[in-house]
What we know:
The structure is a homodimer. Chain A is α/β, with parallel strands linked by helices. Chain A has 2 domains: 6-177, Rossmann fold, CATH 3.40.50.720; 182-280, 6-phosphogluconate dehydrogenase C-terminal like domain (6-phosphogluconate dehydrogenase C-terminal fold), CATH 1.10.3660. Chain A contains 14 helices and 9 strands. In chain A, the strands form 2 sheets. In chain A, strands 3-2-1-4-5-6 form a 6-stranded parallel beta sheet, sandwiched between helices. In chain A, strands 7-8-9 form a 3-stranded mixed beta sheet, covered by helices on one side. The longest helix of chain A is centred in the middle third of the chain and has 27 residues, at 179-205. Chain A is globular, with a radius of gyration of 22 Å. Chains A and B meet through helix 1, helix 7, helix 8, helix 9 and helix 10 of A and helix 1, helix 7, helix 8, helix 9 and helix 10 of B.
Amino acid sequence: MADPLFGRVAIVGIGLIGSSIARKVRAQGLAGHIAIADANPDALAEAERLGLGDSYAASAADAARGADLIVSCVPVGAAGSVAEEFASVVTPETLITDTGSVKASVIRQMLPKLPYPSRFVAAHPVAGTENSGPSAGFAELFENRWCIVTPTEETDRRAIELVSAFWTGLGANVETMTPEHHDLVLAVTSHLPHLIAYNIVGTADDLEDVTQSEVIKFSAGGFRDFTRLAASDPTMWRDVFLHNREAVIEALGRFSEDLSALQRAIRWGEGDMLFDTFTRTRAIRRGIIDAGQEVDAPDFGRRPATRDGSAAEEKGEGNRRNAADRKQAR
Amino acid sequence: MADPLFGRVAIVGIGLIGSSIARKVRAQGLAGHIAIADANPDALAEAERLGLGDSYAASAADAARGADLIVSCVPVGAAGSVAEEFASVVTPETLITDTGSVKASVIRQMLPKLPYPSRFVAAHPVAGTENSGPSAGFAELFENRWCIVTPTEETDRRAIELVSAFWTGLGANVETMTPEHHDLVLAVTSHLPHLIAYNIVGTADDLEDVTQSEVIKFSAGGFRDFTRLAASDPTMWRDVFLHNREAVIEALGRFSEDLSALQRAIRWGEGDMLFDTFTRTRAIRRGIIDAGQEVDAPDFGRRPATRDGSAAEEKGEGNRRNAADRKQAR
């Protein structure tokens, strides 16, 4: 175990992301003391029960007092009010970062509240699951994922280095870009996919000719893949869409245009256009697998549940072959 | 092992579905002889190399001659021509079924070619992966999945029973409905999801402000979930959309309407509408998990790849807890 990077780390908001950070900070010995704050008493009690930190406080200021690093892990819409809460206890040495999925808005909300704005380094780990709350986190969440750091021109260079080192310590790869570019990229790789997933699941729930029981029974035809994203935390995602409005609406406009073109091709029986589109999209999955951001196993490596309820072992010829292919590809 | 249900089973088309059937028929001893046909010489040679059958033929008629059951596993657009190929060798006793993802069109294509139309029982196993070809199949593919049987008023009762028994023997649950209702249900649970997935991946590939490399690197934010369906076989899916045109366009119309409403809510900052929609969609995933059609593990149970390339073991507190929850739920 390395020397701790920080004496006291305050984690404000102990949901999926905050609790995953707490676990990994502990596992890696990145801090001498982990102070946890959450305004929700149930979440705080659960964090304490799970032993995620060394101290627990309802108030962000109490956790942040004396901290070398404050990590804000609250929904994007709460960024400003949380900064206001702990602003009174920060010193010129306190390093501040966050984990919000939208960056320009978070910076706009937080900077005016902070007495030493150059010490705030906005960041976003591109990782998560559909589960939420303190018990949903796990130490490996950030392993081999990307954390995007989005400093402004005013941000202190040494602060950027320390926050980057923190994320490297948590297992992530670090990339730096402007907040505005971050918001464009994530609109496409994260926000639009969630919106589409929520929408298609909502649409399927509302039909008259097809019952909900049919949707559930026959979901293995493809629909079930969308339900994972559509089970994500509603508060977090409401805030993301409200705070990255322009980029999401722009990406959605592109998506809808392209969908109209596909619909037209179906209506007019233009098989070649469909075939070309469906061929082109295969390459991207390969790229994502090669980049280590996806598993190289059919069906996400899902283990089908057998009738007795246990997970089936991978034993088919196809799976053996796929394992062999994976080895060869390395 | 039970007595074989059939003497000779002919599988016409040895892709993902045909080769999974061949493997399971063998494993369960459902047939005395497995005859495999594929017009593609490479696929046929691969099937032979894998030892999937007892005999191999380029022509559907050669495989089907003397068969007690013919299973057509070709893309939906080829249903009519394949029926024409083997029509000359069928007898009044030959049972015929298929596995196409669209049912009304397949029935329209095949029935006029068959000398004993009452012996044709259209069926559709709602199962698959994004991989294709003879080596992609595996015997467990249909385990605990649904196979929808869609007889018409002319279909022989005993034929329906035998085809249903065949699918039960392959591990599936059998449900019966009209071809038209099947096509409506699958438009929602399978065809629309594939179209949406192909479309969003295509959109992301076409942007100017966001590079393909960025889409790949930051795909763990949600985008990667869509790439699995968008890596599915282009020929198969082109045919599905061309042959279930009306139902797909109808489902797409609903989807687009609902998406416009979400877009409007984002534009006007209607957070409550977003929150309500995102809350409602959570329940459907729970239903799908409870119905045994999805795994109850975060992230589809994906094992994240660690830096050394091996799959990480599940060892986080969250994963332990989830395993405990699963046990309690039983």
